[in-house]
Amino acid sequence: MRTLDHPTKPPHIPLMTDLSKIRNFSIVAHIDHGKSTLADRLIQSTGTVQDRDMKEQLLDSMDIERERGITIKANTVRIDYRAQDGQDYTLNLIDTPGHVDFAYEVSRSMRAVEGSLLVVDASQGVEAQTLANVYQAIDADHEIVPVLNKIDLPAAEPDRVREQIEDVIGIDASEAVEISAKTGLGIGDVLEAIVTRLPAPTGDPDAPLKAMLVDSWYDAYLGVVVLVRILDGYLRKGDRIKMLNTGAVYPVDRVGVFRPAMAQVDVLGPGEIGFLTASIKQVRDTKVGDTITTEKKGCETPLPGFQPSVPVVFCGLFPVDAADFEDLREAIEKLQLNDASFSAEMETSAALGFGFRCGFLGLLHLEVIRDRLEREYDIDLITTAPSVIYHIHMNDGTVQELHNPADMPDLTYVDHIEEPRIKATILVPDDYLGDVLKLCQDRRGVQLDLTYAGSRAMVVYDLPLNEVVFDFYDRLKSVTKGYASFDYQMIGYSEDALVKMQILVNDEPVDALSTMVHRNRAEARGRAMVEKLKELIPQHMFKIPIQAAVGGRIIARETLSALRKDVTAKCYGGDATRKKKLLEKQKAGKKRMRQFGKVDIPQEAFISALKMDG
């Protein structure tokens, strides 16, 4: 009787697809320049998805992506296309985010493909994140095809934008494809440009399996789904694969591709992008950038991995209702399964109870995570002031990382403090340049460069990240009426005169309101904070001092007056000493009450005070 087991040596499988008929590419652009819409049109015009199943932003699967109109996770889809020369091609598209906080997703996607479509809005031209993303593509050695989108708009100036691409980015834009992703105009030209101008992948079908782990996420039914790019060899269902980084071995349960729904295939060959599932229980077991090979006779040398994502902004997340703490813990664990760049550890606060100290890639990442926790898991949250990691250099030569200002060590043991700094690139119309320079100077910025691209200025500043994480982006948008675009990258740490500012309510420090500020700004920041708290804290039966302190020195104070009962109301006429006696008695009672009384600070006061702190 024949068995259906695999023979010990798998038979040689002929090349599934001719490598010259495969094109792997990503779409890069600034936010809102039409990446996801172009991806929709490419999918629709090739018949990859039936018209009845088509919807806007097809590859953006999260509600929050659709609602905000942004891409957060890089998504992939395989498209079959018959070119004008009659040949059939397989196109693997990765749609990447445009926002600076998700640049990590972009850099991973770039390494899995050979070319990029650079989409530029023909009315707005090159923006800050167009530059950031295209430089990542150039670093990854990509062939780049410029695409001018939105040419159907009355304000479109394709010739001016072509010149801008050549001047600012330095790539030839004479053959840029002119399209309107919304109406579908020029989509056929884009498909032809992909086939004729982007390179085919390379790979050795006879070599041992070598695949790059591009992304991974958790699926409730399949476990961890791993997105892979095959470089050499073949990946089949039933293979025993090994992760070179962790040394873990798993049997492959299924192999497939995205069209954009999951479709199983028998085998993935060189140059192809697809997914595998292998009964992997946790996303943290699949390290992005790892090399996947077979357990026996696998490849020896791993691929150069990606830089791991490093959180730059930290804040505390606390449930409004302490009873929701376990639900919050469960929700955070589930989110971490799908987002490896989000970190969290438990912390407690005297004012807010139990919660988590969480790390994010930026403020938008923080907002997205908070929105998902509140929506998908129905938890009301309090978010403490965002802070960054400071390096505390101690007198004994050691260096500590400070994530939470409340944990600041005693200053007598501290030699100096260093804060993270960023290189910010701002593109702004000439009319608003003065306001932008003033904003950057106010935030302790150091100007590095100022150049012009047509009528727009490109300003490069060295800024402290601490000054940017609060409301810099909002302020920038308001002083430029929304016309400025902003991108940044971390450049390292530098020493500055930083101090920890504490808020004392009734002589008790409130941990949740502790912040790190520059010594020259402490007084103004402290005064604004105590004035705000005076409005927000309700009156009690006793007088409450609200103070801002740096070290042992009080730098600002407001006093919240007591609620008073009129104890002399029943005294009609008579001796004045009688009234005096009653008032003295009341005064003594208030004094004792202040000594033992507890001040209740409502949750709204925390949220409003922290918002103001920006």
Can you walk me through this structure?
- Helix content is 26%, strand content 32%.
- By secondary structure, the chain is α+β, with helices and mostly antiparallel strands.
- The protein folds into five domains: 19-197, P-loop containing nucleotide triphosphate hydrolases (Rossmann fold, 3-Layer(aba) Sandwich), CATH 3.40.50; 210-294, Beta Barrel (Elongation Factor Tu (Ef-tu), domain 3), CATH 2.40.30; 313-386, Alpha-Beta Plaits (2-Layer Sandwich); 391-496, Alpha-Beta Plaits; 499-613, Elongation factor 4, C-terminal domain (Alpha-Beta Plaits, 2-Layer Sandwich).
- The strands form six sheets. It has an eight-stranded antiparallel beta sheet. The chain has a six-stranded mixed beta sheet with strand order 2-3-1-4-5-6, sandwiched between helices. Strands 21, 22, 23, 24, 25 and 26 form a six-stranded antiparallel beta sheet that branches.
- Strand 21 (390-394) and strand 22 form a beta hairpin.
- It is elongated.
- The termini are far apart.
Helix and strand arrangement:
Blueprint: E1 22-28, H1 35-45, H2 63-68, E2 75-82, E3 88-95, H3 103-111, E4 115-121, H4 128-139, E5 143-149, H5 158-169, E6 177-178, H6 187-197, E7 210-219, E8 223-232, E9 235-236, E10 240-243, E11 249-251, E12 254-258, E13 262-264, E14 267-268, E15 273-277, E16 291-294, E17 313-319, H7 325-338, E18 343-349, E19 353-360, H8 363-376, E20 381-383, E21 390-394, E22 399-402, E23 414-429, H9 433-442, E24 446-453, E25 456-464, H10 465-468, H11 472-479, E26 485-495, E27 498-505, E28 508-509, E29 515-518, H12 522-536, E30 544-550, E31 553-560, H13 576-596, H14 603-613
Parallel strand pairs: 1-3, 1-4, 4-5, 5-6
Antiparallel strand pairs: 2-3, 7-8, 7-16, 8-15, 9-14, 10-11, 10-16, 12-13, 12-15, 17-19, 17-20, 18-19, 21-22, 21-23, 23-25, 23-26, 24-25, 27-28, 27-29, 27-30, 30-31
Helix pairs in contact: 12-14
